[in-house]
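step: validate -> pass
step: tokenize input -> pass
step: predict -> running
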Amino acid sequence: MNRTDSLVRGVEYPVGALDDATIISSYIMEGRRVVVSRYGDERWLFVNTPTNQPKGCRQVYFKRFPERFRPVVKAVLYRYMTRGRVGMDRPTDRVIVKLASDLKPFIDYLASLGIARLGDIRAETCQGYVEACRRHVWASKTGERRLKAASLGHRLCAVERLHELSQYTDDAMPEPPWPDTSYSHIANLTGRGTSYRGGKTPLIPDEIFSALFQRAWAVIKGAAPILNLRDKWVELKANEGQEWNKHVATKRLRKFLQSRNWAGPAKFGKAVRDIRPACYIVIASLSGCRNHELAFLQSGAVRSTLEPSDREGEEPLRYWWMEAKSTKTGEGVTEWMIPEAAVTAIRVLERWAAPYQADIEREVAERRKANSNDIEIPAALKHRYAVFLGAEPRRGNQVRTLSNQQVNNDLRRFVRDCELSWDIASHQFRRKFANYAARSQFGDLRYLKQHFKHWSMDMTLGYALNESQEMALYAEVQNELDNIKSEVVEIWLEPGAPLAGGYGENIATWRGTNPVTLFKSHKHMVRSLAESTSIRSNGHAWCTADDNLCIGNDIERSRCSGCKNAVIDVRHRPIYQGLLTHLNEVASCDDIGPSGRKMVKRDQQRCQHVIQSLDGEAPRMADE
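step: predict -> pass
step: emit ->
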């Protein structure tokens, strides 16, 4: 893993004398410095960006800015990359490129007003820019569109940064753009009534996700014979020792496939291509990784550890770990705990990617032969062990890590082939993972409890968090958990909502005392109760105990009816009705004995009490 780091790495930005020869970006490749961009260049190409970034997202092209502003924009960006903002760390390459992109509309606006220097900007100029952004409309396939609050915030934040950073140049903005407020307030990103809530990633519906995952898993399970056939074809082509034109290659491939009972090149090509998005779906779903983190995934990235079982006599537990990089929040090299199904998908993908990795090796060898200082050599080496690879037809089938857009195109084709109606995107799998992880203790999915062998989410998070893992993912899981708990409590606190169980009956009584007067609002009351209460589902009740000692959580489910830790609502009613029906059948048996009949009677009464609390009237039992 990360085998290229010792051979190819971007160097830190220098801080020193500023002239056109000052190095902006460079590689250290096998002990030699290879310069990529200098201060005087019209284009600054950055090298420390995620590998899934296309070239356009890794560069600042200064010819796009009005000529009169290019010197100050360069000076501002250089100050930003070498010093950062006051009291903050230096930005990543990705953030530098984003600032340049967000500044472009403001600089164009200044030029449209005839302003030639930042020093001529006044507060009314900036206020006019705010209004221009709010009026900005452009056409799309779905009709006219305007800037969303978050996009407006990015643009206005860039103006604030321009003011701060320009103070270190020869052309400084004389005053803050909006002295009495901030970009976030203007863009309505803060306070009550905000138009931006965050977390707007749509949650894939369970039925869509289930069908998509099952299809992806089926592709992975059937990948071996397809890859065997592909590898055999690659071997045959290599043995020929000559390049075929497209027509000859297609004709020979068709003959090769027909001899092995395949319909033709088109069907075979699709079968091979489907493996890549199938692997992405499984790995992303079971790891919760962001797209750029999966882009950093390389061959040999999986390892396992053995942990002693907490049950005497059981075999040690094997845990699987996947290593990659995470740059969004600065974690760097990071590990994720994954189940064995994700390991299977990674193994298949490693084999799928092998010919593409070989293409990169050949490209590097050819470039070295032609020019050992070719800056494309270190660029290619960053991708040579990656597994999410693809050929770029517009670049002579050059092989590189897939961009986020390419991944999304892959996923959309896969969804269409599954005849599903959902606008899929790569980032949705992270939200789905966090949601499933949070719901695991609510009875909908027992993945974390069963795989990590832990009872509660808190135990799982505590075990999983270590210095080499990505913290943000677990924060998102906790956020989903908090949201789900709030939804559950919201139902409990609805006026008149029937509740059973000892804790549920207490809530119903407390609810009748108008407790909202103790809180700022109903929403605050719901959130407070959700945060202060341990809530998980055992399938037939909500258990608020902070341990796993309640016998109602295991073999004696009817005990939850009177347990001080249990809340039973209308969603659980069918379970108790079903229990009562089965108990009535058992009660009619002649061979259960006096003690058995006594136990059945007790459990019937418990179920009857629950149903009566939820319905307002008691159901009949078999002997009534």
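step: describe -> Residues 197 and 247 are 55 Å apart (CA to CA).
step: cleanup -> pass
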